[in-house]
Amino acid sequence: MMIFQILGSVLLILALMSPSVRADDECMDDEDEKDTKFTIAAALKAEKAGKPAELFVAYRTIENHYCAHLFDKNGKDLQARAKANLPKLGRDLAKAAETKGLLYGKEPLGTDGKTSAFVWFEAIGDFNEANRVMLKVVHAKSDDLGFFKTAWEVNRSRSGPRDPKTGEQKPYVSPAGYRQELQKVASANTDQLMKAEEKDAVGLSGNSTDVGMASTGSLEKLKKASSWMKFLPDGDKPAKTRAEQRGDAVMKRSDPMFTQVFAKEYYEFAGSSKAKQLKKKMEESERAMQKSAEKAKGAVTTEKSEADQKKFKKGKADLEKELGF
């Protein structure tokens, strides 16, 4: 009985110790030791050099390095300094980049002086400041829809703080004011495009050539406005509604036979059922025209055949007369 009690106690102790033993075992590899010591040495060197970017990169590497405290006496203290100093160091680097005009760029975090303020702020998790910089760029490139979309989806690569109890890490959500500011930009672009479209639409009442040019410009602006409107609460319904109205205006012209193709393009963009109706009508008209053309061609052929026969008979009669028949 005593033997089983002792064995049970030993197993319990091993079970309690096993996680730390396994964790330490992960650092027992020669390559791990070599890499860890190199990382620590690089961080210490960066501290002495006093180069902010190099120091930031070194601190980030060592901050959560599990093996640092095992292979070097400086490891634990170095990690503590890294965690304490990274936020301020990152903010200083971000402000320096912003002063130089490096607000946003695709360059990854590095030590070559090309890292943008946005990337530095993102690296330290200061998302509010990163958003501020992003909005600054959006206003500077207010008509750049591609960049606007990047700003709109900025939270996609972010994560919120980890729950200390559950370990769960939920997606980060920017304050409502961030997207509200973006919507102001989208609204301004929408208004500008819709006003410009009105000027193009004046040509829809001109001759058939004017209609073609006017509808091309008008529809192009409505499509662009639609793209911006999709970021607004009501969506792109206003652009679609106006497109249908433009199609109706074209169909009311006195020459719809020549201009209805432009109305069809408006209706298709608007997603209107009138597009299918008009397409069917155009196809029926085309078939009717083909039949008329074939009928006319047949009539011409018949007339030509009759004329040829008369000409042949006359020629035959003249020849017979000449030969004395």
Largest sheet strand order: 1-2
- The helix content is over 70%
- Sheet of most strands: 2 strands, antiparallel
Q: Supply the number of helical segments.
A: 13
Strand percentage: under 5%
Order of helices and strands: HHHHHHHHEEHHHHH
- Average of pLDDT: 84
* Ends apart, CA distance between termini: 149 Å
Query: What's the count of strands?
Result: 2
**Structural class of the secondary structure composition?**
mainly alpha
Structure notes:
The chain is mainly α and 325 residues long. It has three domains: 25-126, no CATH class; 175-272; 276-325. It has 13 helices and two strands; from the N terminus they run ααααααααββααααα. Strand 1 and strand 2 (169-171) form a beta hairpin. The radius of gyration is 39 Å and the shape is elongated. Mean pLDDT is 84; it is low at 1-24.
Write the layout of secondary structure elements.
Blueprint lengths: L1 H24 L4 H20 L2 H12 L4 H4 L3 H25 L17 H7 L3 H14 L4 H8 L6 E4 L6 E3 L4 H26 L6 H22 L7 H15 L4 H15 L3 H50 L2
Antiparallel strand pairs: 1-2
Helix pairs in contact: 2-3, 3-5, 5-6, 6-7, 7-9, 9-10, 10-11, 10-12, 11-12, 12-13
State the gist of this model.
This protein is mainly alpha-helical.
What labels would you give this structure?
mainly alpha, two-stranded antiparallel ribbon, 325 residues
